[in-house]
Write a structure and sequence with these properties.
The structure is a single chain. Helix 1 (28-40) packs across helix 2 and helix 1 (28-40) runs parallel beside helix 8 (220-234). This protein has helices at 28-40, 69-81, 83-87, 110-113, 119-131, 167-170, 183-189, 220-234; strands spanning 3-7, 13-15, 21-23, 44-49, 90-91, 102-105, 135-138, 161-162, 193-194, 205-208, 211-214. By secondary structure, it is an alpha/beta fold. The chain is globular.
Amino acid sequence: MTDVLFVISAADRWTLNDGSVHPSGYWAEEVAVPHRIFSEAGWDITIATPGGKAPTLDQLSLGLAGGAPWKRREVKRYLAGIETALANPVALDAVDADEFDLVFYPGGHGPMEDLAHDSTSGGLLASRLASGKPLALLCHAPAAILAATGSDGTSPFAGYRMTGLSNREELLNRFAKKAPWLLEDKLKEAGVVYSRGRIPLRPHVVVDRNLYTGQNPQSSERLARRLLVDISASS
């Protein structure tokens, strides 16, 4: 059986530049769609968060920003079906990522608040990247690589081709004008070879060696299906 570690932010907010708090958490589609695709393939999924704290759903992701009404209904229904697993995650510092065939980080603004500064997650990411085993980060989740540091003090992700939510997409959110930093800028500062799709809010997936990244929530299905094909082919 293929084992997947889902690393989800435990943050329920994003602290903005003026000190105000934007309620946040994980983005519904980014958890529900990959989880469903992997589950339907018979893969076993373990959910982990910093401290083992139950993750918070960003309510915006079930509103207009979450896509068409039918899609939001499907996503909400699926999340209700895995409610027990989401409410009882394991603590990130208690898992051994080497035991998993895939490590998958969904996004939402939550990772900008906690995973971007979480040393446990940073160490896991650096080790996973070096292992050559599949690692995937979606939308805002690449913020987590900012906590990963190599022995020489530089990012182990420097030189890797990656994507993540673009500045243009982020600034579609009114509150983002008060953001302390934007993901695209930070990835470039870390030495990542950043790319984005030509059209905002359209699927865009980048694969470089064992590293898989998706640009936005709309990339959830494409990223998950690419992982499904590649991992199934190698097993």
